[in-house]
Design brief:
This protein is mostly beta strands. Mean pLDDT is about 75; it is low at about 5-15. It contains 2 helices and 9 strands.
Length: about 130
């Protein structure tokens, strides 16, 4: 017969909990599109989102297939899809919602980013 269980109680200093912000949230439309894209590329682990200097307002998003995770990439896994965030884009994308929209003229990923201070007229580039 096993002996009684014991527990130790210690006084804890009051720590303030800091809420964690998710780097990137995908809408269901974006999840579905990424799943479709990944079905055609089973050799890839996910997609990688980054930013680069381009356009009339400074920065633009880049999306590419990811074969491997780099050391400083942030990984977002949501509903079975993996999105890597490039180190240079992590602060820029903090709190962003990634959506996928289709219309008669275009089908594209759309980023709803609360950090953006300005965009260009065509919507391709932004500044933070």
């Amino acid at each position: 017969m096993a002996g009684p269980l014991s527990a130790t109680v210690r006084a804890a200093t009051r720590r303030r909990l800091i809420p964690q912000r998710v780097a990137l949230v995908l809408t269901q439309a974006a999840v579905n599109k990424v799943k479709t894209l990944m079905d055609s590329r089973p050799d890839m682990i996910g997609i990688k989102v980054g930013v680069r200097t381009r356009g009339c307002n400074g920065l633009s998003y880049t999306i590419e297939y990811a074969k491997e995770k780099n050391k400083q990439d942030e990984v977002v896994v949501q509903d079975g899809v993996t999105v890597l965030i490039d180190k240079k884009a992590q602060l820029t994308l903090l709190g962003t919602e990634m959506d996928y929209q289709e219309s008669k003229l275009a089908s594209e990923f759309v980023f709803h980013n609360p950090n953006i201070k300005g965009t260009c007229g065509c919507g391709e580039s932004f500044s933070v």
